[in-house]
Amino acid sequence: MDGCPEHIAIPDLFALYNKQYRFGAFPSHKSNYKSLTDREKGHGSPEDCIGCRQCEGQCPQHIGIVDWLKKVGAEFTKS
Ligand code: SF4
Fold first, then answer.
1. Cα-Cα-Cα-Cα dihedral of 33, 28, 11, 36, to 10°?
2. What is the mean pLDDT of residues 36-63?
3. Is residue 70 within 8 Å of 46, Cβ to Cβ?
4. Which atom of ligand 1 is least distant from the CA of 66?
5. 2 close to ligand 1 (CB < 6 Angstrom)
6. For the whole model, what pTM was predicted?
């Protein structure tokens, strides 16, 4: 996302989380998560979030992104 100093793909991660919530846990979701959080591709992951809240200032829906990112990270890193 533009403006995120940790280059976290916030909209894509939330879209993936919503997909999992609606349709269930498919193996492809976990591999998509790995790709969206791959440092070698320039992405940060939810656990890299430093809580600067720049994203929340830009969000027109006033979503609590920092808190939701923790849930997203937990969902896709649980075994
Ligand atoms: S609060 Fe986290 S996700 Fe939001 S811009 Fe800062 S580092 Fe990125």
1. 30
2. 95
3. yes
4. 1
5. no
6. 0.94
